Write the structure tokens for this entry.
Amino acid sequence: MTRKHTGRLSVRVPRTPARVAVALVAAGLAVSACGTTQLGAAAITGGSRISSSTLTDQVANLGAAYQSDQAKGVKPQRPTGQEAQQVLTWLILFRIYDKVAEQQGINVTPAQAQDQLTVLTTQANQNKLTLEQYVSAGGAVPPDLEPQLGQYFAILSTLENRLNGGKVPTTTAEQTKVAGQVAHAQCLAAKSLGVQVNPQFGVFDYRTYAVVLGTPKLAANPTPAPSASQPVLNPPC
């Protein structure tokens, strides 16, 4: 049976703080700051573009969701003013997990993806929130991307179960082992995509699993050690 995974989507509402202890495992990927990103592309993954227009549309969706959340007293948990980086992070992550599924021979159904959204909806309702409020304020996910979010969690949970002999990892030892194996699978998928991010929007830091603003440093020079403000561009796999 496929595990119904959950994501780290915590939001703050008046008198009802929502703290859901769940694991959202993201992927590391290599980003080349050198070379030319295709015209009109916010990022390129596996030779396929994430267009700037797509990013613009989804940033607008997230911005509108943030405004709606705040009007209802729901405080976004991610830094405002970084919507482009937040949305591009998700758009890249979804493609990485599609690649993970391809490499691992995983096929998830729409029903499995919907099951994951049902879990998130239950969590949202427990905190007196709608699913839209939960994913936008808690995870910086534009509501339009909810189907992709369900797909992401369905792939992740299927992979976790498979790596643990077909059952949900429950013990600390199992969870630690599976987490390492999942991270390796993510890294291999990301590396095979040869992801490039348009410098206009930042770089992808595989250490923090997010598109971040900042000047990339060449990973070929191992010293000094990367600081918190210096993205790491090469995956360790």
The beta strands are 41-45, 48-51, 196-197, 203-205, 210-212. The chain has one domain: 41-212. The domain at 41-212 is CATH 1.10.4030 (Triger factor/SurA peptide-binding fold). Residues 10-36, 216-225 have pLDDT under 50 and may be disordered.
